[in-house]
Amino acid sequence: MKTFKTLFIVESKLEIRRVNSIFFGVFFPLGMILLMGVIFGKKPAFEGASYTALQQTFGALSTIGICATGLMGLPLAVADYRDKKVLKRFKVTPVSPSMLLFTQVLISFIIAVISTISVFIVASVLFGYRFTGSVAGFLISYLLITLVIYGMGMFLASISPNLKTASLLCSIAYFPMLFLSGATVPYEIMPRTMQQVVNILPLTQGIKMLKNYSLGLPVTGLWFQVAYLGILALICIVVSVKVFKWE
Amino acid sequence: MENAFVVKGLRKTYGDLVALDNLNLEVRKGEVFGLLGHNGAGKSTAIECILGTKIPDSGTVEVLKMDPIKDRKELFQKVGVQFQQTHYQDKIRVHEICEMTHSLYKNPADWKELLEIFNLDKENMKKQVSDLSGGERQKLSVVLALIPNPELVFLDELTTGLDPKARREVWNYLKNLKSQGLTIFLTSHYMDEVQTLCDRICILRKGKVVAMDTVSSVIETSNHSNLEDAYLWYTGEEDLGA
Lengths: 247, 242
Hints:
Chain A is mainly α and 247 residues long. Chain A has one domain. Chain A has helices spanning 2-18, 20-40, 53-61, 64-83, 86-91, 97-127, 135-159, 163-180, 192-198, 202-215, 222-243. The longest helix of chain A is centred in the middle third of the chain and has 31 residues, at 97-127. With 242 residues, chain B is α/β, with parallel strands linked by helices. Chain B has a 6-stranded mixed beta sheet with strand order 5-6-7-3-8-9, with helices on both faces. Chain B has a 3-stranded antiparallel beta sheet with strand order 2-1-4, covered by helices on one side. In chain B, helix 9 (215-222) crosses helix 10. Chain A: It is found in: Cell membrane; Membrane.
């Protein structure tokens, strides 16, 4: 316990000093919600809609923290620690290097949660946002999205031989996911054909779940979404564990 | 005399390259043992096979009567390791890496005292590890290997990059620990260091043992007058019998 506490404190300080996760995971979505709030104000999502455009956006923006930590922060830190042989050094101590990995996952997740809570607070205080849906449904969807995105991140870190490859693969996964899944650019404004294409992104499906749960709308295609994300997460995690090398 | 570790018939290949060929070692408790050889002779491979971070193709290793892979949690409470060219987490400070290392062990040494002994305390403690000079970083890696309060310590090129004064400081401290019963296994390219510290040495050439004895016997057998000449003679390209 003493070990975990020390690892957690030191690694948290390092994560803050490295800036990236905090900037892209917390400040960026905060900027987005400010922007959306100013643009949309209290406008309804569409004519005659029972909810506002901002309410519709909340579910999407709440995933940016998961993406920034899961597809950039976490896999890059892991690949870096492997390149620098920090993980290997742990192998000649009484503590398993997997404890260091677990610490990283936990810190990343905490940053993601802070991101979502900050977006929620800003939206509520400044723009009168109201969460009208199912909190439990929202939280479960949130966890499922985290599982699949972190799984993908760890998968990319595992198959990369070094930090350079990892950072290339992570960028290839991160940017399309960020811009095409509806996390930043609203899914609703995309042309129909484009919507059909971006539907294959796991985050698009995840955001649909979050939106429906946060708006209290009937959730359609839920089992497909849960199965798709669940199976993808499982594949990523199993492959990561099999392929991952400590050095 | 009890053994600190025993290595039997260790062999490790990388593709066609035989990095280690039938290495047999018995290092006694309280002894300072030096492993010598050119770069690429197999020194680091030997250390890694002994520590279990590399799996040998064949052979057995027993460290403090334990299996370095199966019993690693128990074994590494008592074993300190300094790898060659250690890197650390980006942006980590000296006191943070020490606190982190300290937290991994049951009966760790006082790291502040260790930093003081190696002149790394005061303003250095708050510095980022990447802002230390090469010599200071090298001393830090030795400090980290000593934080477990080990019975046995592995030091791979322990004083590379240190100035003469710092080298003396490290030597004196290690000698002091030796007198308290610490077993030291080191590699080095500096023959004065080897002569000052080591009781026995083993010279590797292309993965094979070409000499293993006390420093004075190794010099004697080579028909040379000092260790450096003897070392070059053993590791030279000419046939050993000639």
